[in-house]
Amino acid sequence: MFAQCADPSALNGLNWMLCYLTSGTHLLFYGSFGTVLLLLVLTAPLALLLGFLGALAARSQIAPLRWLGRGYAAIVRGVPDIVFFLFVPIALDQGIEWLRSRFLCDPSVPVRQGNEFVVCAPAKMPLSVSPEWVHDLYGVGLAVAAFAFVFGAFAANVLYGAMGAVPRAQLETAEAYGMTPRQIDRRILIPQMWTYALPGLSNLWMILVKATPLLFLLGVEDIVYWARELGGSKTTTYAYPHGDWRVWYFLALLVFYLLMTWVSQRLIDRVAARLSRGQATLAGEALRKTGTPA
Amino acid sequence: MKNLLTAAAVLALTAGAALAEPLRMGTEGAYPPYNFVNEKGDVDGFEIELGNELCKRIGAECTWVRNDWDSIIPNLVSSNYDTIMAGMNITDERRKSIAFSDAYTPPPPSAYLALTPDADIAGVVAAQTNTIQAGFVAESGATLIEFATGEEAIAAVRNGEAEAVFADRDFLVPFERDSDELVWVEGQDRVVVGEGLGIGMRQSDTELKARFDKAIADMKADGTLDAMIVKWLGAEAKTFAGDATGGDAAGADAVTSDAAAAPAQPSN
After folding, report:
1. First to last CA, chain B
2. Domain B109-193 has CATH 3.40.630.30
3. Using the 8-state DSSP alphabet, how is residue B160 labeled?
4. pLDDT digit string, tens, across residues A206-243
5. What is the pTM of this model?
6. What does the DSSP 8-state code read for residue B59?
7. Backbone angles phi, psi at A68, to 5 degrees
8. Can the peptide bond before residue B33 be classed as cis, meaning omega within 30 degrees of 0?
9. Strand boundaries in chain A, DSSP class E
10. b/e map of A44-56 (b: 16 or more CB within 10 Å)?
11. Is the Cβ pair A28, B41 closer than 8 Å?
12. Residues of chain B with pLDDT under 70
């Protein structure tokens, strides 16, 4: 990055450290924090959406839809997360490639040959000729799908419970005004359930933040991968030899995760206050007494 | 008719690709000097240079893909990449699931590295998981502890978790050279356990294997492969030319029988 870093062996002290911390691998390490944030930003709304649909399905009057919603929450919550983190990306990847191979390859050739999963070149996803960033993005996409699938099931259960916690009197009043069931859902039930859902959802968010190191298991080069890779002792084969520095790298990760959860908690507190306004709950009552405008 | 169309489509696609067939080369990127990530963030090392040269010779356009050692074979057979060059020894066990090119190194010696030359190699020994060395330690009767990377296995010796680490000698050499505390275990620094490193490929890629075999044979014949071995693995590493003269092989055999005798010693 800097001109004086061209020959690392001639450096010492602060200069060495400066060059070391701006080496190509370290830039990739810093970039991987972005990967983690990208995963969070994409996964959270997607999981919430899946959870919302799951909760609605679980409350549905139509039996098969209800079974689907309840089954989804029950199965995913009952099976160890790690199984789904390993299963979903592989199943999605091979499913997509199988589908593509049925159209783009000779359909008489099976994709499973012995212990191998092989599709013809044009059906590969992404294509072998695609640049590396496409492969990386595809990997993150599969990871997002796996995370959203798992966390969506937990969110579905939280939202299902929250919908059941909205006081019956509120819904009855709406009925008395002559609203249809759909109107009641949209105008009364859903706006009011969030205050009951928030504690559960905030737990999920915190768990999601702390689950991101699982990315490393999915082959995405995240901050844990790089901390382990860069922290391990380096012999003179490398340009910047050093001893076992893993403890410092993992300390940096610890600070990062603490910061993440600290910021998250402050945001959640604000959202909780906002959602409690005008609610027939203790928190809502406390807000009313302090005179916060409703 | 439909088959004809498919054939035409395949022809058209392969004709376009024939200029430079894309190949994705899987490697671990954590096994210097064979393969590692250099300070620029690119993969580098003996196998990278060799792989790029082989690709040039077979007329393929190669890109390197890093993958954890642990899942490197499963991800090959599920077609995430097309080859493995990751310091992988050719073994019968691995031949059951994947095919190998001809070896591109002579059988590499493995070694025990420890804090003292008289370390008890029948005690707790660290090795990288799923390596032939791990298998060797397990069969030797010693207590095996496995680590995801070779570097972590060495760290286990440094912090006293293990008595010794057993790994490819060429991988351990820089650690022994750089460190004041790590030394070879007396008489256990040249144990031959593998058949040599080979390029792992899917068993269905027979045509690719033939092309790689030919390119490797060419590189052996014109001496470029030996030159690369000396460049990356050091002047004392075994080369094909040195192997052919027989001097080295005899020495290696003697040590192998030593190693075989070692586990037979009473361990408690």
Report:
1. 74
2. no
3. T
4. 999 999 988 887 878 889 999 988 998 888 888 898 98
5. 0.80
6. T
7. -60, -50
8. yes
9. 112-113, 116-117
10. bebbbebbbbbbb
11. yes
12. 1-19, 244-268
Chain B interface disruption, residue of A135, A237, A242, A245, most B CBs within 10 A? A237
Domain B20-106+195-245: give its CATH architecture: 3-Layer(aba) Sandwich (3.40)
- Other Cβ atoms within 10 Å of A281 Cβ, number: 16
Residue from B37, B43, B62, B95 whose CB has the most chain A CBs within 10 Å, to mutate = B37
- Answer whether B77's CB lies under 8 Å from B202's CB: yes
Question: Considering Cα of A220, then A224, then A226, then A232, what sign does the dihedral take?
Answer: negative
CA dist B120 and B142 (Å) reads 9
Tell me whether the CATH fold assigned to B20-106+195-245 matches the one assigned to B109-193. Answer: yes
Helix (H, G, I), strand (E, B) or coil at B23: strand
Task: Give the count of Cβ contacts less than 8 A between chain A and B.
Answer: 97
CA angle A200, A206, A212 (to 5 degrees): 135
The residues with which B184 forms a beta bridge, in sequence order, are B113
Neighbours of A116 (CB within 10 A): 17
Tokens 């970039």 correspond to A31
- ipTM, two decimals, is 0.80
- Give residue limits of the domains in chain B: 20-106+195-245, 109-193
State the smallest CA–CA distance between residue A258 and chain B in angstroms: 26
Alpha-carbon distance A80 to A29, whole Å? 29
Cβ atoms of B199 and B83 within 8 Å: the answer is: yes
Tell me which chain A residues have a C-beta less than 8 angstroms from the C-beta of B203.
Answer: 114, 116
Q: What are the chain A neighbours of B68 within 8 Å (beta carbons)?
A: 219
What is the rounded distance in angstroms from the CA atom of residue A182 to the CA atom of residue A56? Answer: 12
Order of strands, edge to edge, in the sheet holding B99-100? B60-66, B21-27, B83-84, B200-201, B99-100
pLDDT tens-place string over residues B68-90: 898 899 999 988 899 999 999 99
The structural domains of chain A, ordered by start, are 3-290 (1.10.3720.10)
What's the Cα-to-Cα distance from A123 to each of A91, A93, A126, rounded to whole Å? 16, 11, 8
B190: its two tokens:
């040249």
- B82's CB contacts (< 8 A; 6+ apart) are A128, B23, B24, B25, B26, B76, B201, B202, B205, B208
